Structures are given as structure tokens and as C-alpha cells.
Automatic annotation (TrEMBL):
Main location: cytoplasm
Gene3D superfamilies for this protein: 3.30.420.40
This protein's encoding gene: coaX
Location within or outside the cell: Cytoplasm
Similarity comment: Belongs to the type III pantothenate kinase family.
Cofactor comment text: A monovalent cation. Ammonium or potassium.
Protein name (database record): Type III pantothenate kinase
Enzyme class: transferase
InterPro entries per record: ATPase_NBD, Type_III_PanK
Subunit-structure text: Homodimer.
CC per GO annotation: cytoplasm
Amino acid sequence: MQRSLIIDRGNTNLKVAIFENQELVGVRHLSASTYIGLKNTFSPEELLCHSCIFSSVAQVEDPILEDLKGHFCQNLHVLNDQMPIPIEIDYDRTTLGADRLAAVVGAGSLFPQEEILVIDAGTAVTYERISSQGKYLGGNISPGLEVRFSSLHHYTARLPLVHIHESDNIPQWGTNTSGAIMAGVVRGLILEMEGYIEAARQEHPEIRVLLTGGAASYFETKLKYQTFVADDLVLRGLSCILDYQIRECTE
């Protein structure tokens, strides 16, 4: 049985998953900023995994990676723009974020031979297109909800900083400034997403739309188009890349 440790290191959060024979058996979320050592961060079960892949969007020296190198030695794989991947891409890999690449690979593994649009609703909202031939056609990047709210507050003199919760009722038209900001940002992003979906559907009516990221469940209920929520898409993609890398090294 092949057990793998999958680590997705964001700017503030650390997602850790265990896969057995490409099946997700456990996942947990940690704070990257509170890392205090390998054995204090990962469970004994996680450290018994045969292999590990580490992916990071951080631009700093990472003590987590240094400790993993000492533990997993030759069985540690660090995702970079040179690592072989199981998908053809039409994008400059030197500028492609590791999380975006992993999401694309994960989507292709879930729905092979299908036209796919992946919408990752996080700090940024990314739109990724995969063809039915398994080729990554490229993608776009847009500000996420919190970035839009923060920008309005930061770059103006009097607009307040607004936060939303899933239970909030979004008005059609704001009747005060906070309501106007909430409606403008949320409805604006919904219309943006639906615009991308509509454009993709005009080219491929059967296209599958995947939602992932921290705000995926929030937007799932608000979009007028049917979507498929894939919460662990990046982790699944990293697992596929690791499996492909291991097979490449043993052939």
C-alpha cells in the first residue's frame, strides 16, 4: 500500500493530507506561522508515509521544507516549474503558481476527456480552462472578495471596511453605504463568474464547471449555473503529480 504525505503551504495556512493509493484518507488545516518543528506539527502516522510532495506559494526560506528534507530524504519531491507533470500546458510555467497548477492537474484527473472550467474562489479568483484532450489552455486571475472589500476601504477616504458572512442577505440595491459595497462587490463577482461560465458554455455547452477555494460553498448557492464543488482539488492534484513523478523516476 502506497501512503503519501501531501503538503500545500500557503502564505498563512498549511494543508496536510494523506493519500493511500491515490485515495484521500485524511486532511487537516494548520497555521504555517506557528510551525515549531516536524514532530510537533505532523502526527506519527503522517511521518510514516513512504513519500512526500511539498508545494508552496511563499517566497521565504521555509523551515518546514528544511525539516522535511531531513526526514524524507530521497522520497521528498518539491513542486517547481521543472518537475514533470501528467498534463500538457499552454502557459509559462515559470510564472504559474503551484496551487493553480495543482488545481488544473486535479481537475483533469477527476474528469478526464471533458471540457473543464475551474473557478478557484480564494484570496484571488482564478479561472482555468482544460480541454477534453487533457491540455491546460490557460487561465485568468481576478481579485477575490476580501481583496475587493479591502481595496475600496484602503484607497478611499470614507468608505468603510465591509465583511460578509454566509447568512448575510445581499440586497439587490444598497440603501446605505455598507449595503451598497456589499451588493456591489458580491453581485459584481457573481456576474463575473457567470460571465466566464456563459462564455465557456457558448464554446462547449457540455463544459463542466468546478468550484474550489475557501469561498466555493458560498458561491455555489448563488450562481445560476450548475457547478461541482471540489474542496480538495489542489491536494488531489499534488497527489497525482507525486504519483507521476515516482513513476517517471522508476522507469
